[in-house]
């Protein structure tokens, strides 16, 4: 039960290329089979499409598609993230962002508030569950995707944003001025005792704060008499590798290899072993992961 491999403990640790191809030396990290000629081939293809394709195209979109194609030809864990999404990804894995404190969904063409966070800025000004978000910053929000709405509502902490809602229960249209606050996204959910000896913890992703959240949840369960843990990682897309091995360190015995990284250069080669003092070293661990 205890000798779980690193592959069970650390599923889906992501390699993320943020915003653009990183400025590494091509002659170091690519094979030497005429790199210049291959780059020239890409340049010629770009020019041919841009000059001769029947419809007008945006050069930026062609370039983005080309970069995405290159990254997709690597392994399943290499992902290209465009610059306009980099801030969103950063927010996801930092565990905090400046927002208005609502949970919403977009069932059709208009976002619907599922609930304002208790004590959050939206609840304080009167936003209610069921409100339809029809406007943000003097612009219509109808037809926007979930990501587009989120991007418009997020911003620097202590700045203000106007949000207009339609309230079906009263047929009213109301505009709220909401001050953004620091919103924490919990990555450790549902810690509870399954029975007198078995605890359960669900980790939805690995953010910068997940290790602290995990330790707090584990301590609560240990105080309740936990003697074994069910760790639910199903649907977890991965995240910050440092956080994932910190959590593994809480469960594995001293000297056990948690993760090993290898790259072209020696600086990329690293082996991380568990250290003494993990709070769950003596606990049997049952890990749930998604198929595949």
Number of domains: 3
Global geometry: flat
- Give the quaternary arrangement of the chains: single chain
Structural Rg: 24 Å
Which CATH class of the largest domain is shown? Answer: Alpha Beta
Strand content: 25-35%
Counting helices, strands and paired strands, the structural category is alpha+beta
Q: What is the third-level CATH name, the topology of the largest domain?
A: 2-enoyl-CoA Hydratase, Chain A, domain 1
Order of helices and strands: HEHHHEHEEEHEEHEEEEEHEHEEE
CATH superfamily of the largest domain: 2-enoyl-CoA Hydratase, Chain A, domain 1
Give me the count of strands.
Answer: 16
Unreliable stretches, pLDDT < 50, 5 or more residues?
1-28
Average of pLDDT: 83
The number of helical segments is 9
Largest β sheet strand count, sense and barrel closure: 6 strands, antiparallel
Helix content: 25-40%
CATH architecture of the largest domain: Alpha-Beta Complex
Question: How would you describe the overall organization of this protein?
Answer:
By secondary structure, the chain is of the alpha+beta class. It has three domains: 15-84, no CATH class; 96-184, PDZ domain (Pdz3 Domain, Roll), CATH 2.30.42; 186-288, Alpha-Beta Complex (2-enoyl-CoA Hydratase, Chain A, domain 1). The protein has helices at residues 6-9, 26-29, 35-52, 59-72, 83-94, 121-125, 146-153, 210-223, 241-249, and strands at 15-19, 78-82, 96-99, 102-105, 111-116, 132-136, 139-140, 160-167, 172-179, 181-184, 188-193, 198-203, 228-232, 257-261, 270-273, 285-288. Helix 8 (210-223) packs parallel to helix 9 (241-249). The longest helix has 18 residues, at 35-52.
